[in-house]
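User: I'm writing a short report section on ligand binding and want a predicted complex to refer to. Could you take this sequence and FE3-S4 cluster and write out the structure as tokens? A short remark afterwards would be nice.
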Amino acid sequence: MKGSRKLFVKSFGCQMNVYDSRRMADTLAPKGYVETAAIEDADLVILNTCHIREKAAEKVYSELGRVRLLKEAAAVHGRRLLIAVAGCGAQAEGEEIVRRAPAVDVVVGSQNYHRLADLVARAERGEKKVVDTEFPVEDKFDALHLPSLAATRSRGVTAFVTVQEGCDKFCTFCVVPYTRGAEASRPVGKIVAEVERLAEAGVREVTLIGQNVNAYHGAGPDGRPWSLAELLARVAQISGIERLRYTTSHPLDMHDDLIVAHRDLPQLMPQLHLPVQSGSDRILAAMNRRHTRADYLSVVSRLRRARPDLALTSDFIVGFPGETEDHFAATLGLVGEIGYAGAYSFKYSPRPGTPGAQLDDQVDEEVKADRLHRLQAAIDANQAAFNRRLIGRTLSVLFERPGRYGGQLVGRSPYLQPVQVTAPPALLGRIADVTITEVASNSMFGALAQGAARAQKTALLDAGA
Ligand code: SAH
Ligand code: SF4
Ligand code: F3S
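Assistant: Sure. The structure tokens for the complex follow:
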């Protein structure tokens, strides 16, 4: 092994993008690369890009401008800084990246970053513009090793695990089927091994991720394809794993066994991200979402029958081509009808190569901005109402990190909201009951509940206090 070199990785995308960043660091660790949080110390900078909207795609170029200056400054001191661009943006743009930003040494796609160590070694040996955005025949996950216990420990008590990747749905606005390829599921055994490693390193909450996670159908130990509900039940048996979540789901794949798991599997948190995108049937059809507003409402009512307190969140796109004020009003109406715990909303961004970008009736930017503003107000009202109902309730909170002020910890409620609590550091990584005292727009405040005093005492004893 060569001497230690420093690696800085920055994620620009979704949870899977963050997960990939960690796995890239894991593949480089045996080559002597140690992660640093200070970009100016790095010998290798990886920018892990996102391509979902134009704004996300462009962000990397302004960042590359800054990293190029660091590279030039390092060269003045006789030090070599390598720059790699990875992820969905790299997958989509490939060579174009080195053309626009010649300081880039390596471009690696979203499906072949298991080859990153070799690509970096080629650049280290002086090869110029190493670009690899192939969809390989081998499975990248097979080539990736489990991270070391030490690396895993440093990453906290919650973790993401990719269980499914890619998408065959081809919504007309979306680049994911092109940047992540066809839908594929990892086998159950591999996922279980990865979660066992995480649990051993102290992880208590795992979120299973996939672009279409509820379409999961990975091979089980019995050779049969398992559903996501079966996978969740298996992962719940792993000692130490106290909480489970999964994201992102498509309404069409919300099958009965998964809905029932929300009632029957205690580790499965009462929270679900189920994007609907629009409340108008005309727009849903143009988006090729393959479900109607009524289908979505019916899935939601089945879910709520199974788990009445379920915190539902969604994604919305405003200003998809052809969207009129009436279509938009249907979206606002749906938000009022559902009562979300929160949602993300975006202005439609025409993406090169997607069918939506070719449509004639594109909506004006000002109209999009106005609709976005109104939609966000409706979502905020939903969220405030959801949060207000929790005041005075006692919820279990998994403490993840120290709070902003001394003596405080921040954890997450079962509904995924951050909760700030005055609590001893020994409760980090543990679950305790917290009574919610106050809610603000993006976080909640609480006090350790009476019953939590016992947990606190045990924690203090365990910590040798
Ligand atoms: N697999 C997930 C979505 C992944 S992309 C799903 O099926 O819902 C995350 C979100 O980005 C989408 O839900 C959508 O709301 C938004 N998005 C995707 N493409 C977009 C585009 N071209 N313009 C604006 N928003 C977009
Ligand atoms: Fe994109 Fe649609 Fe697939 Fe989600 S389901 S990743 S929005 S194509
Ligand atoms: Fe972006 Fe790729 Fe995720 S396009 S949202 S990083 S799957």
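A remark for your report: The chain has four domains: 5-132, 151-269, 270-389, 394-462. Residues 5-132 form a domain with the Rossmann fold fold (CATH 3.40.50.12160).
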